[in-house]
TrEMBL record:
Organism classification: Bacteria, Bacillati, Actinomycetota, Actinomycetes, Mycobacteriales
Localisation per UniProt entry: Cytoplasm
Protein name: GTPase Obg
Residues of the OCT domain: 358-438
Cofactor entry: Mg(2+)
Keyword DNA-binding applies: no
Length: 487
């Protein structure tokens, strides 16, 4: 049995960028062919796209985790890694995306509308791209960045022209079944309809959709019954139709009191998405009163008695019977006229030609503030410094020296001195904390050393090629007591 799901929690994760490659060109008779490490591929994005063939969020209910493809690492011979595959998630028209803080991220309305909800990480640069006058053959490469990871809430708000509002068992599902080809569940007990039902109605040359919202009761706007979960499906309806049960036998109920009770709930409900208020509040939408079940003699008499009171309010009144189909033709034409009038008053905007303009982002700024958790420490915040930290391989001394040069050129060293930082004080950038050593000559011309090493770092435990060669000769007994090669 199919299920209608209109609210899900979705965990999305964009792809990770591939690492850059640190490689040196090897060729016969060319021992120093230069760096040829390629860049890593970018991680894939997670994209939401409105699809006309999707009508529920059921797929995300069973598969709440979505992950895009990771970028491939770079390779030697200047071969770049392949970009990760984008993940396109199909959502129904009218889906609202809310982040973990309850803030609306995007309102997806319109077939084909797309939105990148999580961007993939950048691929790391290979050593061929890092070569410069100072570093002609870098012995390191940059790491790929992690993709964005988010927890989202997807809410579906039905996009319908007419919304049927009424108490449970008022005959809303029956009305949808006779106005359209929809086949909702119909029974003679309250809350038969647990999910909204949509029907397509053709009247003359006008086609419009009707939404059957589950029955509302007093207190629905405060969460009683099923109303709070499904009142949001009325937010996009252009016309609200009160379906009144004139044959009810419940004590204390009559058509006027039923409509007044539901009007109070509609007035108390506030749309969570401010963009939906372009149609006006629910209390301001055009109204139609449908007095149902007039095939019952007592109900027909009651409908005649209360029609005048609704007419005085300026609302069109229609006496119908969904069972015998009496009065449906005038109702259908009236609803079509109201929908047509709304569409004329709110014409759809012409599709705009897509113009791609690069967005200028200021990534040069950074802030140095006192660390609230470490006495005498500092925290460096900024897009560039934090990204550089994520891209650095701290097991490679040359990569650490390159990071120090970048931070110095950006002005971080000078700002720390200006803030009164003392040698050895903890400095935190992103998720990394290190002891600041101002005596390191960062940002100036460096003295070339072995690949992966940097003489400016005191604790350099990396064994160079010359040391490894001597150790190998000593193990084979090729060196004398003075460390010289035996003759």
């Amino acid at each position: 049995m199919s299920k209608f799901i209109d609210r899900v929690v979705l965990h999305v994760r964009a792809g990770r960028g591939g690492h850059g490659c640190a490689s040196v060109h090897r060729e016969k008779f060319k021992p120093l062919g230069g760096p040829d490490g390629g860049n890593g591929g970018n991680g894939g994005d997670v994209i939401l796209e409105v699809d006309a063939n999707v009508h529920t969020l059921l797929d995300f209910h069973f598969h709440p985790n979505a992950k895009a493809g990771n970028g491939k690492p770079g390779e030697g011979s200047n071969r770049e890694g392949k970009n990760g595959a984008d993940l396109v998630l199909k959502v129904p028209d009218g889906t609202v995306v809310v982040d973990g803080d309850g803030k609306v991220v995007v309102d997806l309305v319109g077939i084909g509308n797309r939105f990148i909800i999580a961007r993939g990480g950048r691929g790391g640069l290979g050593n061929a791209s890092l070569a410069s006058k100072a570093r002609k053959a870098p012995g390191f490469a940059l790491l790929g960045e992690e993709g964005e990871e988010l927890d989202l809430v997807l809410e579906l708000k039905s996009v319908a022209d007419v919304g049927l509002v009424g108490f449970p068992s008022a005959g809303k599902s029956s009305l949808v079944s006779v106005l359209s080809a929809a086949k909702p569940k119909i029974a003679d007990y309250p809350f038969t309809t647990l999910v909204p039902n949509l029907g397509v109605v053709l009247s003359g040359d006008t086609t419009f959709t009707v939404a059957d919202v589950p029955g509302l009761i007093p207190g629905a706007s405060d969460g009683r019954g099923l109303g709070l979960d499904f009142l949001r499906h009325l937010e996009r309806c252009a016309v609200l139709a009160h379906v009144v049960d004139c044959a009810t036998l419940e004590p204390g109920r009559d058509p006027v009191s039923d409509v007044d009770a539901l009007e109070a709930e509609l007035a108390a409900y506030k749309p969570a998405l401010s963009g939906d208020e372009s149609l006006g509040d629910l209390a301001d939408r055009p109204r139609v009163v449908i007095l149902n079940k007039t095939d019952v003699p007592d109900a027909a008499e009651l409908a005649e008695m209360v029609s005048a009171e609704f007419t005085e309010r300026g609302w069109p009144v229609f006496e119908i019977s969904a069972v015998s189909r009496a009065g449906l033709r005038p109702l259908t034409f009236a609803l079509a006229d109201m929908v047509r009038q709304y569409r004329e008053d709110h014409p759809k905007a012409a599709p705009k030609r897509t113009v791609i303009r690069p967005i200028a982002t200021d990534e040069t700024g950074f802030d140095v503030v006192a660390d609230p958790h470490e006495p005498g420490g500092f925290v460096v915040r900024g897009t560039r410094p934090e990204r550089w930290i994520r891209q650095t391989d701290f097991n490679n001394d040359e990569a650490v020296g390159y990071l120090a040069d970048r931070l110095a050129r950006l002005g971080v060293e000078a700002e720390l001195v200006k803030q009164g930082a003392e040698p050895g004080c903890p400095v935190t950038i992103g998720e990394v904390t290190f002891e600041w050593e101002p005596q390191i000559s960062a940002g100036v011309d460096m003295q070339p050393t072995g690949r992966g090493t940097d003489l400016r770092l005191e604790n350099n435990e990396r064994v160079g090629a010359a040391e490894r060669k001597l150790a190998s000769q000593a193990r084979r007994g090729l060196l004398d007591e003075d460390g010289e090669r035996k003759k």
